[in-house]
Amino acid sequence: MNHARAGWLNKVPEVTLSFWVIKILSTTVGETGADFLAVDAGFGAGWTSIGMALLLACALFLQMRKSAYSPWIYWLTVVLVSIVGTQITDIMTDMLDISLYTSTAVFSALLAINFLLWFKVERNLSIREIDTPRRECFYWSTVLCTFALGTAAGDLATEALGLGFTLGAMIFAALIAATLVAWRLGGNTVLAFWVAYILTRPFGASLGDLLTQAKQYGGLGLGAPWTSAIFLTVIVLLVAVAQITLSHRRTVTP
Fold this sequence. Notes:
254 residues; mainly alpha; 8 helices; 77% helix
């Protein structure tokens, strides 16, 4: 049995409404932030991917060194994973000319393999027990796969299948709602969590495209810079509240 490292607590936040709001905002920022850096800021897909991958490595290093959940480090890592996951899919599609059908299938297979290995080793996929280095490695590799898959699936639905940004966002939102209903009716908690977690990525990607793309392409024309700035501001505020609340709770707890 893989016992928790001495002094380690669960390394991920409680799954609350705030968790899902920040998660969806982070997925949208992953889409709009990657577009802003690669296109608007002129760094290109290659340099954006390298720079964000290095920042992600630093964030993961900080995250892995902590013995307990730290809101600002955790959510910084999620945002960077979102951007890197988006860039991986975009590079496969735009630079390597790999179809969205293929990339969606590849990332689906990688995610399934990751889940199988995780369950085979730990016999548990619950995020309530991310309390060892090995479990945390499985967790973050799974998260990266979900972001890459979500980007590919979102683009597949809205672009390749021609659903458009509005209809695509509505469909993924409906699927998330259906998952919530299934959980409320007694569905498996761990399964419901991961299904919802995967679906929030294409929902966030579709929402990001809807907000940023020009009106002639079916978007609202807000642009990547403004959308990224607004969503990042909300994320920072919510994470700051979480950080202050957690610090206060640990201070008053005997």
